[in-house]
Amino acid sequence: MHQDATYRLETPDNVELHFDLAGPGSRFCAICIDAVVVGGMLLALILVAIVIDAALPGALSAIKELKADRGLFTSVGVAVVLFGVAVINASYHLIFELFWRGQTPGKRVMKIRAISDDGTPMGPTQVLLRNVLRMVDFLPAGYALGGVVCLVSDASKRLGDFAAGTIVVKEGAVNYRAKTDTKNAPLAAPALGANPELLPDESRLVQNFLSRRAELLPLARGRLAEQIAGPLYDRYGGNWDYAESYLERLAAGRHRDK
Amino acid sequence: MDGSASTHFVEERSSRWDELDAIVEKASKKGIKRVAPAELEAFLRLYRSTSADLARLRTLGVDGSVVDRVNRLVGRSHALLYRTPSEPLAIGAFYRTDFPRLFRQTWRFSAASVLISIAFFLMARSVVAAHPEIVADLVGGGGAEFSTSHHAGDFSERFQAAPGPLITSFVTTNNIGVAFRAFAFGITFGLGTLYVLIVNGAMLGGFAGAYEQSGLGREFWFTVLPHGALELSAIMIAGGAGLAVGWALWSPGRRPRIVRLREESLRAVRIAAGLIPAFVVAGAFEGFLTPSRAISEPVKVAIGAAAAIVFWLYLTLAGGSVAT
User: Fold this and answer.
1) C-alpha dihedral (B22, B23, B24, B29), degrees to nearest 10
2) What pLDDT, in 10s, does the model give residues B59-74?
3) Suppose A126 and one of A97, A164, B12, B125 were both cysteines; which one would form an S-S bond, judging by CB atoms 3.0 to 4.6 Å apart?
């Protein structure tokens, strides 16, 4: 349903920009990675506290006049650790998205980024808002609410994205220059217009499919090939073996060949 | 258009795209301020021509991967060009003018929040006065913490036992959490915010009722008010920010709810964030002023009340008039 969702944006100079939206899956993976990173930080904090406690006996341990059954804390160490936990939990996403321009370690691994839905980097208020609303999206547990909202919303937004006016997009490997696609060279499509029988639209469709099929998952690729080739076969006939082969030969005008 | 013409177009333009790509790459690595003026001019020119190329490419129906890479290039240029000049987190200006103005723009919601809190405070207090046995239900988990303190000495000792810096840091983070929660749940059409305010008011009322019943009302208020005056003010204002968001969802006017949600929550989150220093001060009071044995109790209350009054005066008077 949301496979390959595209967010279309009209810029002030009337250019239509397309962004590939990050789906709920990659966003959830990013969140999981971030949770592991936060867990690691907390663990490190606790270990440091334990080491300090061992190295300097008494530095962090119980305060004398404190009665365990009545006081808030039984030891300064525990209090410092708990305070550190609260601070890390509250500020992890905020700080990273602020200084890594919309990315956290998890988002970086998943190659996704939160940006403002006008295509520009987020401002500080937007970063704050989308992360404050994280606690609502998290409800009742494990980002259930945010996940559902993300699944049903047009641009895969969670509540925080709606409020802050942000979207999460795929970074897309920016190999802008080296797009020669050598791996799939033998599958390269014949030049557009090689089959004069085809209408321009049809020719373009086939061309597009043939040049991009390597990027598709096998199942989607097969299904798409069938969808495109079926009607064309009905119209132009020729020799059918399987959909992709038919399209290759049709594009080159050799669809009647054996 | 046939294949050769579109290929020709791509070949003809790709050197310009490369040129633009080089500038964008440089600008995003070194920062746009380090790019030479001549290059900036070239950037603007190339951005415009490449945008036009993108539109052209889409109508030509050339190879999708070419459209993709030009789209990406224009996207990156666009982000560079229209980036909001990175607000240097202008904290000074925010507190001089923006924050008090924001408060006054939304004062009705803060007032509503205060009234709701007071209503449930009074309700809980009178209920506990009539039926002291329900206090444990009313104050929830907090009851356990207080159940051990049955006389005045215990109650104030609770604050004196733990060291000040710890109390301060804990109470401050906790209160900031409550405030942001009160704001954030505004997105549930205000219902979550109402819940936070009601629980907060009822808990305070429950405690107050219980201590007053046991004849410890004076100790209770002397212990709560030095830090509580400011702290409760700030929590109620944060609740007001949440109510403002909730109200925008109930009654969006002519514009779509989603637009109103954005407007209101971007405004209200700044109020919630602006309250952080108030919580730090209140937390410091709770950690150092409330447990102090050197300062007499009426003086503590006076200091706490003075801080709250200064805070409210600042909110109502500072920052000049609102332009709207």
Assistant:
1) 90
2) 776 777 788 888 888 8
3) A164
For B163-175, the pLDDT digits (tens) are 666 677 777 888 8
- The answer to whether residue A6 neighbours chain B at the CB level (below 8 Å) is no
Q: Are A76 and A63 in contact (CB under 8 A)?
A: yes
Question: Do A18 and B273 count as a contact with CB atoms less than 8 A apart?
Answer: no
A83 to B166: CB separation less than 8 angstroms, yes or no: yes
Cα separation, A93 vs A247, whole angstroms: 48
A70-128: pLDDT as tens digits = 444 445 666 677 788 888 988 999 999 988 888 999 999 998 999 888 878 888 889 99
Residue A35's closest CA among A104, A136, A137?
A104
Structure tokens at A102: 């919309």
CB pairs under 8 A between A and B: 162
Task: Compute CA distances A238 → A121, A246, B278, whole Å.
Answer: 52, 9, 79
Q: ipTM value of the model? A: 0.75
Instruction: Flag if B65 and A72 touch (Cβ within 8 Å).
Output: no
Chain A residues touching B291 at Cβ < 8 A: none
Query: B103: closest CA among B232, B273, B303?
Result: B273
CA distance linking residue B209 with residue A139, whole number of Å: 33
Residue B184 sits at the chain A interface (C-beta within 8 Å): yes
Q: Which residues of A79-116 are buried (b: 16+ CB within 10 A; e: fewer)?
A: bbbebbbbebebebbbebbbeebbbbbbbbebebbbbb
Selected residues 80-99 of chain A with any CB under 8 Å from a CB in chain B: 80, 82-83, 86-87, 90
> Which residues in chain A (20-59) have CB-CB distances under 8 A to chain B?
none
Residue A197's closest CA among A247, A253, A238? A253
Which residues on neighbouring strands pair with residue A112, listed in sequence order?
A: A170
CB of B16 within 8 A of CB of B46?
yes
